[in-house]
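Thread: sanity check for a docking pose with copper (II) ion

Original post by kr_44:
Hi all, I'm comparing my docking run against an independent structure prediction. Below are the sequence and the ligand SMILES. Could someone generate the full complex and paste the structure tokens? I mainly care about where the ligand ends up relative to the chain.
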Amino acid sequence: MSDEPSRRRPGPWRRAAPWLVAGLLLATASLPIAAAVERLPSAPLVGFARGANASAPVTVNLTDTPRFVPHALLGTSNSTLTVLLVNQGSYSHTFTVSRVPHFVLNTSWTPTQLSAWFVANGSLANVSVAPGQEMYANVSLNASVGGDSFEFVSLVPFQFQAGMYGFLNVTNSGPGLLLSENTTDGLQFVPNQLAASPAHYPASVDVLVTNTGSLGHTFTLAAQANYTLSPANFTQYFAAHPPLVSVDVPSGAGLTVWANFTVLAPGVYQYICEVPGHFASGMTGNLYVGVPVPAPPTPPSTAVVATWVLAGSAALLGIGVALAVVASFTGRFPRRPGGGAHGHPPA
Ligand SMILES: [Cu+2]
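Reply from moderator J.T.:
Ran it for you. Here is the predicted complex with copper (II) ion included:
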């Protein structure tokens, strides 16, 4: 009776075996996952076009300088432009948009004269933003205002007179495709791949280019599809084949410009920055119109690692299965030397 408890107590190997098998099976399951994660290509940055009427809000900062930053806005006729107004200062500001196209307000007017003019002529939007607050302004741009320009000001006394004004320029692109592009002081377009899938041709495409740095750039798009520009030949090339569009990106963080153009046929259209040296430094990208964006190449080094990881996981899977089979037949693993099922476990 003294050996009854120890007889029922399994040896340490027997107690360890299920855990060992479970651990190995877990390892075999997790290693391929690790390998798959390792082989995931870094997500390519591709800007995809969206419909013109689903425009995302444009942010305008209101400062105590006093300024609107950016001070040039672009909208599309027959759509609503949503502006997120961020008051970064410690004074109140207003975002008040004139409804009289192509009318430039006079900065020598007194605050009373300015307010009286808006009372007489109305506004497309008039939103007051308290210090530190954010407000949305929705500016409805009907189908007839394409090509028009509307001034916007702050009506807080003497802010307009001190330079707090800007212009909203409305393009007449109709049901165009909208894309966003950024320029950086690192001489890159981010993203450097844009994609649009027009339903028909000719297709109207509008690219909003935002400068994230302080250097000036251009957004210059080749008119010929499937032609590869080089830093050495682009000047001559553009002299012979004028670009589809070329706009200056204003120098200053947050400043924007629209590149509006019409694409006649599907294909890959290359764009570059024409500022000397920028294209040679890598400032270029491709617009894929109606054709798929190519898949990014898989770096070869990670493929080698993945092969090793997969081979290791296959070996471990084999060991795990063998252990499970042995354990299921013998009831313990491994059978202790001298083999009794009733002995005391090793001390
Ligand atoms: Cu540039």
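The radius of gyration is 33 Å. Hope that helps with the comparison, let us know if your pose agrees.
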